[in-house]
Design goal:
Blueprint (H helix, E strand, L loop, with lengths): L5 E4 L8 H10 L4 E7 L3 E2 L7 H13 L3 E6 L10 H13 L4 E4 L14 H9 L2 H6 L3 E5 L7 H11 L4 E6 L2 H4 L5 H8 L3 E6 L10 E2 L9 H10 L6 E3 L3 E2 L6 H17 L5
Parallel strand pairs: 1-2, 1-10, 2-4, 4-5, 5-6, 6-7, 7-8, 8-10
Antiparallel strand pairs: 2-3, 9-11
Helix pairs in contact: 1-10, 4-6, 6-8
């Protein structure tokens, strides 16, 4: 496999403090972390935390030799009232030295309940470009919700037409939300993929069941080969969300992260 960043999303540790995520991710042998700053869900770091607290997290990352290269800063980008929140997430990502900020677009409906057009979405995204430029950040739009396929996000990215806005291809969300063949969908949007959430899928296609890598039916070996063949060296970030009931306990999360590491090593990755 070609060399690329292999990371773990701290959201795997939803419900547990960032300290547990850092220890568990490092113990599994990873060197990169995607920090989660999702309001009302997983606020491992967040703009309303004190500067002293953010410095404490930064120090803990350094002590554990973990590089925070990306931040999951999900915000409804179609809601004007939330744009300031997202800009603050960009600034916080810059503070931690991240190169990427991850967000889904968010669901936006017009007065007649019609879904906002891709053109309208692209216009909202373009408004963020000055901030991305100022803080030298790439925004990677996650396959999620109404925008649940790579094909949809490819059109939006092409309309935005900026090297700073690309697709975060979430391998399980494409099944759960988009109900697509992941391999075919990836092939159609490969040129716009700039980041990948490696998320496994088990159970029914619309069932909340996202276990450790190798415990479901996502065709990861074929995906890895496609990415290599296309010379697409986008970072891979592991996300494990378990079932609707969540993880049983911290030990189950740590084991799932370790199992995912072992699966990737068996596929030829070194990290």
């Amino acid at each position: 496999m070609k060399e690329r960043i292999i990371a773990v999303n701290s959201n795997c540790y939803h419900g547990y403090p960032i300290e547990e995520a850092i220890v568990g991710i490092r113990a599994a042998g990873f060197r990169y972390i995607e920090l989660t700053a999702t309001k009302g869900w997983t606020e491992h770091v967040f703009p309303d935390q004190s500067f002293a607290r953010l410095l404490e997290v930064q120090d803990l990352l350094e002590q554990n030799y973990l590089i925070p290269f990306a931040m999951s800063g999900h915000t409804n980008l179609m809601d004007p009232a939330r744009i300031d929140d997202f800009v603050n997430n960009i600034r916080m990502a810059h503070f931690f030295g991240c190169d990427y900020i991850v967000s889904s677009i968010g669901e936006a409906h017009l007065e007649d309940q019609a879904i906002a057009s891709n053109e309208s979405v692209a216009k909202h995204i373009k408004d963020l470009l000055p901030y991305l430029e100022k803080y030298n950040m790439k925004l990677v739009l996650e396959v999620h919700g109404d925008h649940g396929t790579g094909a949809i996000l490819k059109e939006i990215c092409q309309l935005v037409d900026s090297e700073r806005v690309l697709i975060n291809y979430d391998t399980a969300n494409a099944i759960f939300y988009g109900d697509v063949d992941v391999i075919k969908d990836v092939a159609g949007c490969m040129d716009q993929i700039g980041y990948v959430h490696l998320k496994e899928k088990a159970g029914g296609r619309q069932e909340w069941d996202f276990p450790a890598l190798g415990k479901g039916y996502v065709e990861f070996p074929q995906l890895f080969q496609m990415m290599d063949d296309a010379d697409n060296l986008s970072p891979y970030s592991i996300e494990i969300e378990f079932t609707a009931d969540g993880a049983k306990d911290l030990a189950e999360i740590n084991q799932a992260v370790l199992d995912s590491a072992e699966y990737l090593r068996a596929q030829g990755f070194r990290f």
